């Protein structure tokens, strides 16, 4: 298979990670960012915001009819969120593994949810669950101009060139 060295065809995979309001209130932002940095992923976008109900209903469009949706809105608007885009090989699936299952009771130690949370309604972090979901969520939360294309100086050490 021919691969051009300059275009790095497999490094452009991106995912959306958000530290939810409980994670921000509990001062977990730094520890969560550290896990993605130390794994070798590249940060390409980051911002802090108070989420609107409108944005939330688009983000969770498949959940708006669920019985827990009203409490999910209260939770997600209870303080600021820190939302990020991370890039790297297999980042969508690897991030889901790092974050752990939706219900922290089922999350292994070593995952973000398994280390920092107890209950499904306060599970600290969001991670896109598929490539398509990641693309949709990134477009929803970020403008293209706010995502940076940049070469990290250690890229040759974390990625096959
Ligand atoms: N959630 C909840 N109760 C439930 C299921 C989900 O409060 O019974 C919340 C929880 O915060 C979860 C979010 O809704 O992270 C989105 O649910 P989803 O099934 O998309 O899980 P995720 O992709 O976040 O693991």
From TrEMBL:
It is found in: Cell projection, Lamellipodium; Cell projection, Ruffle; Cytoplasm; Mitochondrion intermembrane space. The keyword Transferase applies. Residues 12-149 form the Nucleoside diphosphate kinase-like domain. Its EC number is 2.7.4.6. One of its GO terms (biological process) is GTP biosynthetic process. It is an enzyme of class 2 (transferase). One of its GO terms (molecular function) is ATP binding. Keywords: ATP-binding, Cell cycle, Cell projection, Cytoplasm, Kinase, Magnesium, Metal-binding, Nucleotide metabolism, Nucleotide-binding, Nucleus, Transferase. Its main location: other. Major role in the synthesis of nucleoside triphosphates other than ATP. The active site is at 126 (pros-phosphohistidine intermediate). Its cofactor is Mg(2+). GO terms for cellular component: lamellipodium; mitochondrial intermembrane space; mitochondrial matrix; nucleus; ruffle. This is Nucleoside diphosphate kinase. It is a peripheral membrane protein. It comes from the Eukaryota. It catalyses: a 2'-deoxyribonucleoside 5'-diphosphate + ATP = a 2'-deoxyribonucleoside 5'-triphosphate + ADP; a ribonucleoside 5'-diphosphate + ATP = a ribonucleoside 5'-triphosphate + ADP. ATP binds at residues 20, 68, 96, 102, 113, 123. It comes from Acanthochromis polyacanthus (spiny chromis). Belongs to the NDK family.
């Amino acid at each position: 298979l021919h691969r051009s060295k300059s275009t790095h065809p497999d490094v452009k995979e991106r995912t959306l990670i958000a530290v939810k309001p409980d994670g921000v209130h509990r001062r977990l932002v730094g520890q969560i960012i550290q896990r993605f940095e130390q794994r070798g992923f590249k940060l390409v976008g980051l911002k802090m915001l108070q989420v609107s109900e409108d944005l939330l209903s688009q983000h969770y469009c498949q959940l708006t009819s669920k019985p827990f949706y009203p409490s999910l809105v209260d939770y997600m608007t209870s303080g600021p969120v820190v939302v990020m885009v991370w890039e790297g090989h297999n980042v969508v699936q690897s991030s889901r593994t790092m974050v752990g299952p939706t219900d922290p009771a089922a999350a292994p130690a070593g995952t973000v949810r398994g280390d920092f949370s107890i209950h499904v309604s306060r599970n600290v972090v969001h991670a896109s669950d598929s490539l398509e979901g990641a693309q949709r969520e990134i477009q929803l939360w970020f403008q293209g101009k706010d995502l940076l294309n940049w070469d990290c100086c250690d890229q040759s050490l974390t990625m096959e060139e």
